[in-house]
Amino acid sequence: MRKDHDVPAGTIHQLWIDGRLLQDNLLGDPARRRVDVYVPAGHDGRGLPLLVDLVGYTAGGPAHTNWKNYGENVPERLDRLIGTGAMPPVAVAFPDCFTRLGGNQYVDSAAMGPWESFLIREMLPTIEERFGCGGEGRRGVFGKSSGGFGALVHALRHGGAVWSAAASHSGDVGFDYLYNLGEFGGALRHLLDCGMSIEAFLGKFEKGHKAKDKDWHTLMLLAQAASFDPDPSQFCGIRLPVTMDTCEIIEERWANWLRWDPLRMADAPEYQENLRRMKALFIDCGDIDQYNMVYGSRQLHRKLEAAGVPHTYEEFHDDHFSVDYRLDVSLPLLAKALA
Fold it and tell me: Does the model's pTM come out above 0.85?
């Protein structure tokens, strides 16, 4: 729903990209992917900075271009911010990265597929050639939750070279706080009804008429396992980092998860240098985030501050959900940095 009917509306272009890199993934997900591209009113895209929206778990990029009740979708928000002069015009891509396991962490995985490479090596060139936008020094990435994690990891790994600005809203940071033993224990209890079989659980989930919260939560942990510690010898490459009977941490497998924790990644000098090469880095989190991400976010902020990495960190009094209003802060910051 548009809040301001006086500002001109931009155009949404629907593209389909045949992801050669995504073919033959273990999940059997389609390699042909939809990418919606927003171009503001009065522009054809040429010469504009390019932002990429990485959505949170359970969603795909086109969900952010759909009609939204009692609130703006992202293109409507962009229309308002650009139309009122709060931010300079930008093009924005909304890639569909949804998977059989309910979402994406936007990293390369032997199970999920090479999503990091798809975004950088296939999606970006296609959009930039089609619309004449983006290019070196003119690309930004943003997201919330799993999308915020993706934005952070892409900034750490490709800051300056690919991405020149990034914003993470309530991103997955501090895995020791986010994925504790209670989370894995809950998943194991839920798998009990399926004979402790991940294959049986996924088959039941896909055939079921109505998924429960516990189903989604278990599926999310399986998606993270397939992203951070894929095991091609297992069904769909999924292997949890705990023993299935006693829920004891398997140290070598858990270590594979921790290698993807932005809080740990930020210790690496080469990643710190990538962040220093960026024009803008924005991180925020609600101070009552029910997934404990605020604690990891605070530690990341202090670590970056101590390392002399320029960034903006903010906390706001809210939890993990329905925080799209925070885009009013991050989008102008990214657009102005790239303009």
Answer: yes
